[in-house]
Amino acid sequence: MSTKQIKKIVLAYSGGLDTTVILHWLKETYNAEVITFTADIGQDHNPDLVKKRANEIGASKVILEDLKEEFVKEYVFPMFRANTLYEGEYLLGTSIARPLISKRMIEIAEEEGADAIAHGATGKGNDQIRFEIGAYSLNPSIAVIAPWRTWDFVSRADLIDYCKKNQINIDADPDEPMYSTDENILHTSYEGEILEDPSIPAPESIWQRTSSLKEAQDSEEEITINFKNGDPVGLDGKDLDSSQLLETLNIIAGKHGIGRLDLVENRFTGMKSRGCYETPGGTLLLKAHRAIESLALDAQTGHLKDELMPKYAQLIYDGFWWSPEREALQAFIDKTQELVTGSVKLGLYKGNIIIKERTSPNSLYDPKIVTFEDDENTYNQSDATGFIKINSLRLKANAKRKKED
């Protein structure tokens, strides 16, 4: 689709420097209507300021939506059912937010008769891929505009100069910030600038959601997370909405210094990147969910889930949430969660999460079988002899062949 054919664009708009410049640039470059869309998924933002800036630049329509509950219930919790970690550590706080934003942008584009969508992701990062693969999965004919891949600007200073030349009123310092952030109800990420050298510790000043271990609360706190069908549904016996539960856990975990991660990861684009992440409530949920699964899942189902999880995590990280293979994996994961119900008590202290208690009405744990005491009526220990001989048969054959060689 050529520039002349594009008449209306839906822009993912944060109200910050980058997307404010993009809004003006799109209008100037395409001579098109630009609708701004801001998804409230729990980031720190001022909706009045966002709306004011968009209107000042000349957005034809300003759309702001509170999507926190949908984000947590329909994206975060389904991901946590799989105990998902990318490269063994990252809880995918940024990655899991992109499918929802892409979906709403496509829906708005269809509702408003827009020809294209636009985003402010850079040409080096993962988010451009996530936004665009998500968009094409839902509307294969949509045009996608990615200004950072096409315009001549290369720095924050360039954007500020553009604002000055075009009389765009925005409070921005060319020397700040010294790193970029992405935030939602699940996490905050920090990367770039002062964090680019992985041999240098991240400054304590970057962390916004978690206390340092030195500053963390000096007494242990106990909480109980209640689960139903694999999803957390309450805290200390009180039912809570999904977003309210996660927000509460964020506060509790944050004051105990729980949820920090400093990671060098492999981006989908092929380069390595250092990211610092805060996922306080999510870190609690991962620990608690595995604890309740340890009671309710049989060994082979749990092990198969663990084998499939890295593939599932990779699909989310790379932007394939709407792919048929992710949906197929989700169906399997959700099937395993039908009996994952119960409660887990956690002790929280100075960055530590201690499992105190776990109970489930669907528990497979049978103390009558596990006990070291006499239990001939439930488990005959002599039966293990045949079990061992059968399972060692191939190993004996291999050992014999090696000895003969």
Task: Explain the overall architecture.
This protein is α/β, with parallel strands linked by helices. The protein has three domains: 136 residues, HUPs (Rossmann fold); 180 residues, Argininosuccinate synthetase, chain A, domain 2 (Alpha-Beta Complex); 32 residues, no CATH class. The chain contains twelve helices and 14 strands. A five-stranded parallel beta sheet has the order 3-2-1-4-5, with helices on both faces. A five-stranded antiparallel beta sheet has the order 10-9-8-13-14, covered by helices on one side. Helix 5 links the parallel strand 4 and strand 5.
Indicate the radius of gyration in whole angstroms: 25 Å
The strand line-up of the biggest sheet is 3-2-1-4-5
Net shape: elongated
CATH superfamily of the largest domain: Argininosuccinate synthetase, chain A, domain 2
Architecture of the largest domain, according to CATH? Answer: Alpha-Beta Complex
Strand content: 15-25%
Largest sheet: 5 strands, parallel
How many β-strand runs? 14
Kindly state the percentage of residues in helix.
Answer: 40-55%
